[in-house]
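From the shared-data thread, chain only:
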Amino acid sequence: MGLASSAWTDKVVNGRLVLECDLVQTSSTTEDSFTLKTPQNKFDSTKSWILFVNTKTAQTLDGTTLPVDLWAGWDNAFALTSANPPTATYGAEIASIIMDDVQAETLVARIDPNYRGTVVQAATGTAGHVNAGTPPYFVINLDGGSTLTAATCHIVITQ
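Structure, as tokens:
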């Protein structure tokens, strides 16, 4: 598989929770990459949060387009397995293509359980806006449809 997802780390910056995770693709393969579930009892899904993808280094992760999907879980055993396509234990994909294409620039989306408008897909120069409900856990999935290169994608959640 060639994929390693680091554990989420957390810190408080200026009174706000910051969660960070690296997706490290160590070889070129065609598959999805996804984080581990968000940490238990650190993250309040009843409040809005901001998702930043590819924030560490400017790297292109695939040869075509690499959309970002959002998965949610309702059990402590929630996890994604497999890689092409992923399958969920105690969860499901809840928002498809919330970001259009992870490339060298950082993409940003606001995930707000109170948002009632039309989903706005994050793209270069456009911040996204999504209602993802209030499940206890989330997983961020890079929905690879082409060969992912050996690269690192840094993911940050702020709340």
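The chain has one domain: 3-158.
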